[in-house]
Design a protein that fits this description.
By secondary structure, the chain is an alpha/beta fold. It has three domains: 142 residues, no CATH class; 254 residues, 3-Layer(aba) Sandwich (Rossmann fold); 192 residues, 3-Layer(aba) Sandwich (Collagenase (Catalytic Domain)). It is 23% helix and 26% strand. The chain has twelve helices and 29 strands.
Length: 607
């Protein structure tokens, strides 16, 4: 026995891959360690030398790949040297059914990670098993194709909404409870990748062992914003995109009226069959993402967004300035809508909280709005549904980016805004020469009346050095939906259009928090920063976390009155970049600027 082991080790030393004539996991680990320790040694099997090739990323060499294909297996070894990182050796074994083993070795050629794919009797990959250093199975694994859970006690009654993505994790309770099913309990959704009825969230396109999970996140956004719908999940047919025709026919035959498509590619050929099928079923509204390449897809198309189909809408994600968010695509012809889809809260594949961004997540938001409209009016045609959606958009200056406009708040139809209290606040300061037209809106119960009044009164005391003030302020409290209590460009449209009176009244909003991507505790909106979002014009927002609230409010009010975002570094001056206690002075020239501008903007009245 000892002689046999000695012969094996000697063989590995001279010809590492020769031991793979009938490979097992232990020998593969030994092979990986041998190549890791002697990367330049000649490696051959049955008289053939392993194929070597460089590994490049963005025109930079990051390592070398060794590949050898003894029938029926394939073994690949990657010697990686990423800039600024320790070296790593990755060994992958592939069998006819697919990848079966992945071993990762650290810079010391010690095993740092091991995974194995388990298959069922039909050769279908079911899960990825995690192994210990002795290659023994751990309790931890990642599902690839688990069985479908039993139907929920209460079947969803809303319209059937399809999502074409990488599938969904139907083991998550909130997804399982929303699945559309046949009368026998079987799933209506389908996996057009594996061609079975288990569209589980798994995209192994990059790596069989590091599977991407996307569909559960997009579906969770849809289900949060359109509760009660019947979800029909589809796993897209990456191995054969001609199956998209079957997918569309499947959706049509199962009364799916809206289909979200947060995916795409650069090749028209991938989507030609889908295009023909979608046109054949005009009763289905398809909603596609514009993509995340940061480009004009009128000039450089992506698909299906670039298809000219009457029953297809294309959407992209907007930033706080009502422009395409960083890296998202746009197109004044190909893209229909901008809408807020940055830093959204959702549920990840494993059930944990996640924050997501991009045009992919604009799709479920628009689909959810369409689903709610359809639930309210089930007989809407696709043309009528598109017209209803257009009614939620504002045009503004969005024509540079999209064809139809900006949907500020895809939840606007569900918003609750109720006045709970209103009372006048009369400052103690003497009547000013220049009276400011101002109203105060309180959105969060954390703002106590005495805090609001002290903030307003002390801020006006600071502005009184310019003889600017107010005789009386109407303070109005509102009970609102949660998302309206924070500052955000889109939801501010819903709030301000429903609560604001005179446009020449400067609105002070006492908010809970901010959801702006560039977050400030206090923020002012004048003419200069509201060209694409005029509903925010002449408003000042304070979050409850704002420090030195009175000084912050006076500072932001001055920005609006002066119609300027400028700051200075004058010691003791109110308009320094960072406000501080005791820094409240305003010079004569500053006061005159604020007065002249405020009068021109009709925010001030001279008494």
């Amino acid at each position: 026995m000892r002689k046999a082991i000695s012969r094996l080790l000697a063989t590995l030393a001279l010809c590492p891959i020769c031991a793979l004539a009938s490979p097992d996991e232990t020998r593969l680990l030994q092979l990986g360690q041998q190549v890791c320790k002697q990367p330049d040694a000649p490696i051959s099997f049955q008289g053939a030398t392993a194929q070597r090739s460089a590994i490049e990323f963005r025109n930079t060499s990051i390592g070398e790949r060794l590949e050898w294909r003894p029938a029926p297996d394939q073994v690949q070894i990657e010697l990686l040297q990423l800039p600024g990182r320790p070296s790593q050796t990755i060994l992958t074994r592939t069998i006819p059914a697919g990848a079966s083993l992945r071993l990762a070795l650290d810079q010391n050629c010690e095993l740092s990670e091991a995974r194995r794919i388990a298959y069922d009797d039909d050769g279908m990959a079911t899960r990825i098993e995690h192994l210990d250093r002795e290659l023994q199975k751990l309790d931890r694994f990642d599902w690839l194709n688990p069985s479908l859970p039993a139907p929920a006690a209460n079947e969803p009654q809303g319209p059937r909404i399809g999502m074409i993505d990488s599938g969904v994790n139907y083991l998550l309770p909130h997804i399982a409870a929303s699945l559309a099913r046949h009368d026998d309990g079987s799933l209506i959704g389908f996996d057009f990748w594996d061609m079975d009825d288990l569209p589980f969230d798994a995209n192994p396109a990059r790596s069989a062992f590091q599977v991407q999970r996307h569909g559960s996140r997009t579906a969770s956004v849809l289900l949060r914003e359109a509760p009660g719908i019947a979800l029909v999940p589809y796993r897209y047919p990456r191995p054969d995109m001609s199956r998209m025709k079957q997918l569309v026919e499947h959706a049509a035959s199962n009364d799916v009226r809206i289909v979200g498509m947060p995916l795409g590619s650069n090749r028209y050929a991938d989507w030609a069959d889908f295009a023909r099928a979608a046109e054949a079923y005009p009763e289905i509204l398809f909603i596609a993402s514009a993509g995340n390449n940061g480009r004009d897809i009128d000039l450089s198309p992506v698909y299906p967004a670039g298809l000219e189909i009457d029953n297809l809408l294309v959407t992209t994600s907007s930033n706080d300035f009502v422009e395409p968010a960083e890296r998202t695509n746009y197109g004044r012809i190909a893209v229909d809508y901008l809408l807020p889809a940055e830093s959204l809260n959702t549920i990840d594949f494993d059930g944990s909280a996640a924050v997501v961004s991009g045009s992919s997540y604009a799709v479920p938001r628009l689909a959810a709005l369409a689903a709610r409209l359809l639930a309210a009016e089930p007989d809407l045609t696709t043309k009528q549904l598109k017209k209803r959606l257009a009614g939620f958009s504002v045009r503004g200056r969005t024509g540079r980016y999209v064809a139809t406009g900006f949907i500020p708040d895809p939840l606007a139809d569900t918003a609750m805004i109720e006045q709970s209290d209103q009372y006048p606040f009369i400052p103690e300061s003497p009547a000013p020469r220049y009276e400011l037209s101002l109203a105060a809106t309180v959105l969060d119960e954390q703002w106590l009346d005495n805090e609001v009044e002290a903030t307003l009164g002390d801020a006006l005391d600071i502005l009184s050095q310019c003889d600017i003030g107010i005789r009386q302020i109407e303070v109005t409290r509102y009970d609102t939906s949660d998302w309206l209590r924070d500052l955000a460009t889109g939801s501010a449209h819903t709030l301000l259009t429903r609560t604001r009176g005179n446009e020449n009244t400067l609105a002070v909003v006492f908010a809970k928090d901010t959801r702006m991507n560039e977050a400030y505790d206090a923020e002012a909106f004048g003419l200069g920063n509201t060209a694409n979002r005029p509903w925010l014009r002449h408003s000042v927002w304070l979050t409850h976390a704002t420090s030195d609230r009175d000084i912050a409010l006076a500072h932001e009010l001055f920005h609006v009155l002066a119609n300027s975002g400028d700051h200075n570094e004058i010691s003791g001056n109110l308009m320094q970049r960072r406000t501080a206690r005791g820094e409240t002075n305003l010079g004569k020239a500053q006061c005159q600027t604020a007065i002249d501008s405020g009068l021109e903007l009709q925010l001030l009245i001279e008494r």
